[in-house]
Amino acid sequence: MSEVVAAIVAHADDEALGCGGTLAKHVASGDSVYVVFVADGTGSRSEGQSEGALALQQRQRAAIDAVSKIGAQSPIFLDLPDNQLDALSLLEVIKTLEPVLTEIDPTIIYTHHGGDLNIDHRTVCQAVMTIFRPMPSSGVKAIYGFETMSSTEWRFDEPRAHFTPNRYVDVSNTFEKKVAALRAYDIEMREFPHPRSIKAVEALATYRGATVGCTLAEAFTVLRQVDF
């Protein structure tokens, strides 16, 4: 039986960095995959209105290209303010996100690790866990948290907030699609040794794979998993 998979992320490129290979693997298995971008990803960087509009269009075109390389459905953009989700009430974020997720009606969800340095990542994770709180009528089988290079590993306080994976997905056969998606975000990628570089992403996948005895892997925390 095929699944309905939703990757709910703060910014365009988070999905490719965190779970691009896994999403491509879902697509290859016949699952329907959706990607929802909550924040616009550019608002905190742009100085003028015209500059901001141009940057947003460029980022969204890159996201559409990246998601298509993974094989997912056309992405959904909510365009909440970048790096300012904490300036909104959690209820505002939920009210924007919940109708979209109700329509998608996912059975498997991927979202941010709740301890990331980036405040938008933490807010999205909290909103997802609130929307999909375990009600008797819920059809959600699993919620997984992924790591995002240049955010997850940069968290410097609270040891309990550090990313400690307990689920690994072998992405040896779909890693090329992850890299193709990342290359669509050339405006966001950096040169090694920056963590958001192709070489660093490959190194992380190699390490995660070696941890569990495969060539390349993506790692997750199990936020919830229910066997029906």
TrEMBL record:
Pfam families: PIG-L. Transmembrane segments: none annotated. One of its GO terms (molecular function) is hydrolase activity, acting on carbon-nitrogen (but not peptide) bonds, in linear amides. InterPro entries: GlcNAc_PI_deacetylase-related, LmbE-like_dom_sf. It comes from the Bacteria. This is N-acetylglucosaminyl deacetylase, LmbE family. It comes from Pseudovibrio denitrificans.
